[in-house]
């Protein structure tokens, strides 16, 4: 048996979806066809590409990661050859992009609209994830790129800095600290603190406080950024965040006061991340170019 492009496409679909059923649905083929192609490819290569785990889908083996990196390069080259005679500079193909869940509603729609206008042939699959899932999926090769804060990214990841943001305090509109132009970390720690509970996020802010010799009076962790804003807006604590949507109101309509932190804290970076082995992807390069343009011309969150 010779390796065919079909074998590579089927294997990459399983890599993207970590699941034969979803890969089959995406390619509009039967599950047995996917399974047979994977078995044939593994038999020809003489090594396992995937670990089958009941209830956890398909995970690439170390050899599988190397093989799928090469498969991506081969299919990308074939795609470029097929479109060599196309007029203009528009690209086409599929791109799997993850975005940190707090950033996604505020950055992705306009960014993807611009990418579609420039390259209507690029089809982008979107995953909204926490930091831990972004790191895991970048590491196992199921993503082409991720838009995220620079937290929890695995080794072997190449990042492009899109912008840098300063931390700010979230306060109920009638809070005494809201009368100030800026708020210190020490002042915030005298009140109940509300942070989002995503992996790496709350630890990051607690590390900043510890660096300044501080700890909060009490800590509440929420599963979402909007619940954090809602609790603060309703007087149940104060918050720290980098993300700031347009319009300082919680979902239930309560007003929020947003103030800068008086201490000189490190800025947090928003980055586009990809595996170094994907650095020659024309589709990711097109996404990066669009992201740099969008973040460069638009104040993020109105700042």
Automatic annotation (TrEMBL):
Keywords from UniProt, A to Z, are:
DNA-binding, Transcription, Transcription regulation
Q: Superkingdom, according to UniProt?
A: Bacteria
Family matches, as Gene3D superfamilies: Periplasmic binding protein-like II, Winged helix-like DNA-binding domain superfamily/Winged helix DNA-binding domain
Keyword check for Transcription regulation, yes or no.
Answer: yes
Read off the Pfam families from this record: HTH_1 (PF00126), LysR_substrate (PF03466)
Q: Which residues form a coiled coil?
A: none
- Supply the InterPro entries for this chain: LysR_HTH_N, LysR_subst-bd, WH-like_DNA-bd_sf, WH_DNA-bd_sf
Residues of the HTH lysR-type domain: 3-61
Q: Which family does it belong to?
A: Belongs to the LysR transcriptional regulatory family.
Q: What is this protein called?
A: LysR family transcriptional regulator
Q: Which organism is it from?
A: Pseudomonas piscis
């Amino acid at each position: 048996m010779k390796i065919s492009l079909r074998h590579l496409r089927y294997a990459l679909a399983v890599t993207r979806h970590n699941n034969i059923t979803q890969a089959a649905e995406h390619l509009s083929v039967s599950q047995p066809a996917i399974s047979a192609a994977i078995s044939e490819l593994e038999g020809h290569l003489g090594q396992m590409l995937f670990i089958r785990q009941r209830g956890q889908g398909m995970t690439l083996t170390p050899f599988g990661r190397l093989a799928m990196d090469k498969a991506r390069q081969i299919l990308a080259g074939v795609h470029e050859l097929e479109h060599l005679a196309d007029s203009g500079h528009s690209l086409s193909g599929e791109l799997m992009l993850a975005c940190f869940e707090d950033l996604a509603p505020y950055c992705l729609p306009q960014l993807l609209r611009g990418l579609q206008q420039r390259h209507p042939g690029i089809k982008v699959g979107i995953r909204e994830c926490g930091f831990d899932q972004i790191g895991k999926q970048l590491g196992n090769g199921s993503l082409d790129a991720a838009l995220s804060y620079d937290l929890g990214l695995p080794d072997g990841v190449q990042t492009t800095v899109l912008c840098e943001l300063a931390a700010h305090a979230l306060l109920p509109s009638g809070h005494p600290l809201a009368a100030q132009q800026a708020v210190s970390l020490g002042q915030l720690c005298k009140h109940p603190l509300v942070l989002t509970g995503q992996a790496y996020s709350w630890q990051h802010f607690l590390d900043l406080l510890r660096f300044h010799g501080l700890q909060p009076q009490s800590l509440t962790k929420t599963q979402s950024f909007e619940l954090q804003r809602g609790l603060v807006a309703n007087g149940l604590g104060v918050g720290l965040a980098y993300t700031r949507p347009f319009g300082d109101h919680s979902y239930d309509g309560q007003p929020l006061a947003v103030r800068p932190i008086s201490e000189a804290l490190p800025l947090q970076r928003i980055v586009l991340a990809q595996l170094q082995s994907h650095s020659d992807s024309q589709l990711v390069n097109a996404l990066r170019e669009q992201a740099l343009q969008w973040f460069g011309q638009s104040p993020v969150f109105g700042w």
